[in-house]
Amino acid sequence: MNFDRTKYKVYTWKNWMMLHWILNPGLIINELILGQRVPKITLEERTSNKTRFERGIVPCPHCETLHDGRTWSTENGTAFKNWFGLYCNKCGKIIPCLINVFSFLVLIITYPIWGWFKNKMKKKWLEKQQQRFKNIDIEKVPNPYDKKSWIKTGLGWGLFMFIMMSIVFPLYDGSEINIKTILIGVVIWTISGLLFGYTMKLFFNAKINKQSK
Fold it and tell me: How far is 151 from 158, CA to CA, in rounded Å?
């Protein structure tokens, strides 16, 4: 697809946010377990005075529909379970997505286990998508980083990472879990969560005129 670059800013794998998704090992959980995906190409309106959160657009390379980025949200029940990509509710095809390097390695290693069932799983998944995207309501999707919402969102992310990195993974590889490691994990992921939330607040609330919402 060709885009009017005077109207849209185009984000590809070369952007730092996209590279973060590709290279961050912690995002294996988001991709393989939760089914959260990021499209290979994302657009951002250059002329609108809306916040960046509202200016995001996901183009479908098959039917060339420009989807509002909020189409895939927790409020609409579409943020997760997108293991095979992002479903286009206009043409019924799949919008290509980035893949995390570490997720890719896990998939290669485990291919002998799931590879035989890939096509069957994909077909079954695709059959469910039309119903999932039947009643999409963009207007009901709030900015999770607006006002003080960033604190809740950041701490929620920190809690999830704490559970996975300080409890689940250590249990899996046999590492020791004690009061000290738990307390260190709480401190690290609380601070990390708040930093993550605040960074996202600054990014997603930015406007073209540089004024904060």
Answer: 10
Encoding tokens for residue 81? 């379970």
- Separation CA 135–CA 7 (nearest Å): 29
Amino acid at 122: K
Residue 50 CA from chain centroid, whole number: 21
Residues 88 and 62 sit within 8 Å (Cβ to Cβ)? yes
Parse the chain into domains and list their residue ranges.
1-141, 142-213
pLDDT tens digit sequence for 62-97 = 999 999 999 998 888 899 999 999 999 999 999 999
Amino acid letter for position 11: Y
pTM: 0.75
Three-state DSSP class for residue 156: helix
How many helical (H) and strand (E) elements, i.e. helices and strands, does the chain have? 8, 6
Give 115's DSSP letter.
G
With a cut of 70, say whether residue 108 has pLDDT above it: yes
- Cβ-Cβ contacts under 8 Å for 43 (sequence gap 6 or more): 3, 8, 9, 10, 11, 56, 57, 58, 59, 66
Q: What count of other Cβ atoms lies within 10 Å of the Cβ of residue 23? A: 11
